[in-house]
Amino acid sequence: MFSVQDFKSVVDKYKIIFFDAFGVIKSYNGLITGMEKTFAYLEEQGKEYYIVTNDASRSPMQLAESYHKVGLDIIQHDRIISSGMLAKEYLDLKVNDGIVAYLGTESSAHYIDSSGLHTLPVSAITQYNIDQVNALVLLDDEGFNWFDDLNRTVNILRKRTIPAIVANTDHIYPITGSNEVSIAIGGVATMIESIVGKKFIRFGKPDSQMFMFAYDLIRERTPVSKKDILMVGDTLHTDILGGNKFGLDTVLVLSGNTLPDDAETRIRATGIVPTYVCESAVV
Amino acid sequence: MFSVQDFKSVVDKYKIIFFDAFGVIKSYNGLITGMEKTFAYLEEQGKEYYIVTNDASRSPMQLAESYHKVGLDIIQHDRIISSGMLAKEYLDLKVNDGIVAYLGTESSAHYIDSSGLHTLPVSAITQYNIDQVNALVLLDDEGFNWFDDLNRTVNILRKRTIPAIVANTDHIYPITGSNEVSIAIGGVATMIESIVGKKFIRFGKPDSQMFMFAYDLIRERTPVSKKDILMVGDTLHTDILGGNKFGLDTVLVLSGNTLPDDAETRIRATGIVPTYVCESAVV
Amino acid sequence: MFSVQDFKSVVDKYKIIFFDAFGVIKSYNGLITGMEKTFAYLEEQGKEYYIVTNDASRSPMQLAESYHKVGLDIIQHDRIISSGMLAKEYLDLKVNDGIVAYLGTESSAHYIDSSGLHTLPVSAITQYNIDQVNALVLLDDEGFNWFDDLNRTVNILRKRTIPAIVANTDHIYPITGSNEVSIAIGGVATMIESIVGKKFIRFGKPDSQMFMFAYDLIRERTPVSKKDILMVGDTLHTDILGGNKFGLDTVLVLSGNTLPDDAETRIRATGIVPTYVCESAVV
Amino acid sequence: MFSVQDFKSVVDKYKIIFFDAFGVIKSYNGLITGMEKTFAYLEEQGKEYYIVTNDASRSPMQLAESYHKVGLDIIQHDRIISSGMLAKEYLDLKVNDGIVAYLGTESSAHYIDSSGLHTLPVSAITQYNIDQVNALVLLDDEGFNWFDDLNRTVNILRKRTIPAIVANTDHIYPITGSNEVSIAIGGVATMIESIVGKKFIRFGKPDSQMFMFAYDLIRERTPVSKKDILMVGDTLHTDILGGNKFGLDTVLVLSGNTLPDDAETRIRATGIVPTYVCESAVV
Q1: InterPro entries from the xrefs (chains A, B, C, D) (predicted)?
Q2: DSSP state, residue D199
Q3: Average pLDDT of A65-93?
Q4: CATH code 3.40.50.1000 region(s) in chain B
């Protein structure tokens, strides 16, 4: 029912392309073969592109380096919009002083740290400093002891009435080089949220704030209409739902989460309808 | 624990004020006494203000008139941001032709109609035109037969893989002149969504798109920082959660949904923390 | 992966068979062809059988008559266990006096009425008798005005702290003679429950109380082990999940809700695994 | 509105008493002072009693010993009905061979082990034995490495279409001697369930199967009506909701989860109404 279209002919209709990262540019085994051609083509055609990704484990600078390592030197850090950037903006705007407790690696905290707040891992929160904790941020699933620190997180949130920020809404992510998955911090956040009964603040697709952040960056330099932007993703309920809701045209690519045989069933079952379906984002 | 502050002293710190409508400006019995003074004060001080409301039952023009009727002549239609406007923008951007089926009054459909699409009530969808239905919009809880048309809606969405748009996320609204409530179209939407198992597209607070729409309008005329904007609302999980997440400072007023005696308990229980708490939005 | 087995050879291993009604015995078009042979075979083999059905629209007597009308004279009312019987038992045990308000037809209320309580439709609840309302029962999706009476129901439950009983957990049911569905009272109940934020008491599969009711009836006459009972159903998340959890062996039949092409996908996706899969319950 | 009644005068109306354990008999600091008098009184009056508890960390024998240690020698193991017993019954009835993988302590597995199946911790499941895993049971929050084994659990359930059994539905439990809580295995189960998208089989209050198990034990020796049984608990949504639904009269005691000042608010908010409210279960 949904005809699979040629990616190049789709891309030719738009001025600006938003890409999801995993399943679109990268896969279990590194760079998806041919994606370097896509970015070369976009440069050649003078089209702008952004990577819009649910990732709060690293800074845009570090994310850009991860593309360079797999041979995609063209990706600059200012082309990367991550959910971590939104978490950082939230802290800059809304938390003025005190401690920001976090779950994640030191590296993930280093990025949000730059806002001038005092970041401390959840494991460092004690009865002596808990009263200064003014926000709790869930950044990454690594870098802490799950049993100890998830229990600590629940107890901090029972004692302190403070915002809890989830910097990545994904529930799982694939493990490179295997066909297994890991529980992402967004999945952990859902458990903690249901246990403490409080409402967390979540950043990441499908929420429009991700798209708006990119849209705003573009408009600072040049006037643009939503009609000129195409969102490319492999996941219906984040990339496509979010893109659609923000008013963008969307392409579902079949190189990641959504397998070619399942695409139609899933589109029907969810009611999340991409504007186009393409095999991959390779031109 | 949360000290109740004077609204005027709070407002004085900001350049732009966003107001929720019901429970802040209006109540069961019409205009909340003294609100005309608030808007006079804002005009006098050269502060900008917007009404940011989950309402898709009428156009901004008609909403403005409803304020004029209760004696608040100052409110102009271009100061009103409604969730209906976002639904309309979505249709303009994303649905190019065919029929848009709707649940709501003719008046609510008239507003989205202007986008050039053919709007038809769900009751007018038959086996002969169902194939042309390219979107379904839930606008208002009145104007249709619930038993017949909610069942029709379920069957349309089982047959057609199309976007379903909810133009007002509220689950209930108060009935003027009583202490009773009515089920809002957002509550009905949740039922239909769970029955058909599809993902609906929802517009309205706490979603950031509402705040972004207002923010964009302002920035077209003048540069502004989120730090300069204050969101005033009576409901924690729409007004305050949404304002906070967008990065705005927020005031919870105790003139509507959140009663003075419950405010602290609810803030603790939900973890949704306003920047300030004020008795009302009257200066 | 799941081999489809012959129903007779499966049935031969058990002494007592529980059947779901719709999709197993009856379909859109009346009796499923051949089911009269199944019941004749069970009688001949001296096996006991029960119909375990989520239905609160009629008494077991009336349900038995509905089988007689389509030519299945063998089904006696004492072989029918309905979720309505559990709702009735609840009222008998737990509500001692006053009014039981209901949503449903007069006929559905007539059945629960026999417990000696005063049953009144929600439409008859006024400010003068609301204080005597000691329970609210959701029986059937017909027999009332949805807009008026669902709004009344919400307001009754906001004013009175009383149990709300849902006598049928199904969210939809198929309309005879068409390929359309109707919203069942269980779907309506979910909406009301989420709007008033209270916990409803639900009777019906997959809840074990349905199976226990039948199990108790049998044990009054003869000792029996759960190992001797087979549950036959067409729906994974009611019949099969409920049967499994109660400790029964289960057959998924492909004559109703679960289509032959979808069975394996759905079993994998839900993790609800029947002991057997059969084309139908026809011997 | 809800008058607090004397526990002895309530108990005098019933022949059989079901007690929840934590918050009713025991608290953070061991035995609730005076509970030894309650059990002496019940013995003296010839009333039967059972402890109905969401606990799968130990056998009834070990649970009985835990009462002896705090000075309540009267509690015999055959008076204890735990959710672990239901999990064990499920495995006995429904899983015939192969490996049962588990999350929990060795001691918790030892109890279910007796059914003749081969139990192995999730950490011992490899590519070589995963095909023999026929069920996965979540028993206790201790005894395993959360990060490693929760990720392993997700991947086992992605690869194997097998029942996942949750032997304790509680989301948190209090830590003795502190005012902190621990995440219970039921809370962990909810996260895993939502991540893998499968339906788990849960045993524990408020599910009726817990009450039925006790009810059946009693009826083996003596005829009894549900009208003769009283359920005593400190938690509305497990003890009281479950007892009510099963058709029992219920007492909410204010010695545990539900604080005296919150009782009325919570009863109103949840709509879960106990038959009586008592300060504690001390006579």
Answers
A1: HAD-like_sf, HAD-SF_hydro_IIA, HAD_sf
A2: P
A3: 94
A4: 4-54+206-261+272-278, 85-202
Give the tokens for residue C110: 């007539």
pLDDT band at D178 (very low <50, low <70, confident <90, very high): confident
For chain C of 283 residues, list the mean pLDDT of each consecutive stretch of 10.
90 98 90 96 97 94 94 94 95 93 94 82 97 97 97 96 95 83 95 94 95 91 93 96 98 92 91 97 97
Q: Which residues contact C156 (CB under 8 A, 6 or more apart)?
A: C101, C122, C125, C130, C133, C136
Q: Residue D115 — pLDDT band, cuts 50, 70, 90?
A: low
> Which of A141, A151, A160, A188 to substitute to test the interface with D, most D CBs within 10 Å?
A151
Q: A93 and chain B: CB distance < 8 Å anywhere? A: yes
- Evaluate if residue D1 carries a pLDDT over 90: no
Q: What's the CATH class of domain D4-54+206-278?
A: alpha beta
Tell me the C-alpha distance between A251 and A255, whole Å: 12
* Residues whose CB is less than 8 angstroms from the CB of residue C219 and which lie 6 or more positions away in sequence, other chains included: none
- The CATH 3.40.50.1000 domain(s) of chain A lie at 4-54+222-278, 85-202
DSSP strand pairing (C181-183 vs D133-138): unpaired
pLDDT above 80 for D176: no
**Domain D87-202 - what CATH class?**
alpha beta
Q: Name D189's bridge partners.
A: none
Strands B48-53 and B16-19: parallel
Q: In the CATH hierarchy, which top-level class contains the domain C95-202?
A: alpha beta
| Alpha helix positions (H), C32-105 | 35-44, 60-69, 83-94
C86-134 pLDDT, tens digit per residue, is: 999 999 999 989 999 999 999 999 888 866 789 999 999 999 999 999 9
Provide the percentage of residues in chain A whose pLDDT is more than 90: 85
Q: What distance in Å separates the CA atoms of residue C87 and residue C96, rounded to the nearest whole number?
A: 14
Q: D111 pLDDT band (50/70/90 cuts)?
A: confident
Residues of A within 8 A of D150 (CB-CB) are 146, 183
Q: Where are the CATH 3.40.50.1000 domain residues in chain D?
A: 4-54+206-278, 87-202
Residue B190 touches partner C, C-beta closer than 8 Å: yes
Cβ neighbours of A218 in B, within 8 Å: none
**Could you tell me the two tokens for C177?**
């003679």
Does the CB of B90 have a partner CB in chain A at under 8 Å?
yes
How close D184 comes to chain A (CA, Å)?
Answer: 10
Contact B279, B254 (CB under 8 A): yes
From the list B246, B267, B269, which residue is nearest A197 (CB)? B269
User: Per CATH, is B4-54+206-261+272-278 categorized as 3.30.360.10?
Assistant: no
Contact across the interface for C163 and D246, Cβ inside 8 Å: no
CATH architecture of A4-54+222-278: 3-Layer(aba) Sandwich (3.40)
The interface pTM score, or ipTM, of the predicted complex is: 0.93
pLDDT per position as a tens digit, A236-253: 999 999 999 999 999 999
For D86, phi then psi, to 5°, come to: -70, -40
Chain D residues in contact with C200 (beta carbon < 8 A): 271
pLDDT at site A1? 61
- Quick one: how far is CA D267 from the chain centroid? 22
Chain-chain contact of D207 with C212 (C-beta, under 8 angstroms): no
CA distance D144 to chain A (A): 9
Structure tokens at C97: 């006096």
D130 Cβ under 8 Å from any chain A Cβ: no
Residue with tokens 């008239």: B110
* Closest C-alpha among C97, C105, C91, C85 to residue C204: C85
Q: Output DSSP code: residue B22.
A: B
What are C137's two structure tokens?
């029962």
Phi, psi (rounded to 5 degrees) for A230 = -120, 130
- Looking at domain A85-202, its CATH architecture is 3-Layer(aba) Sandwich (3.40)
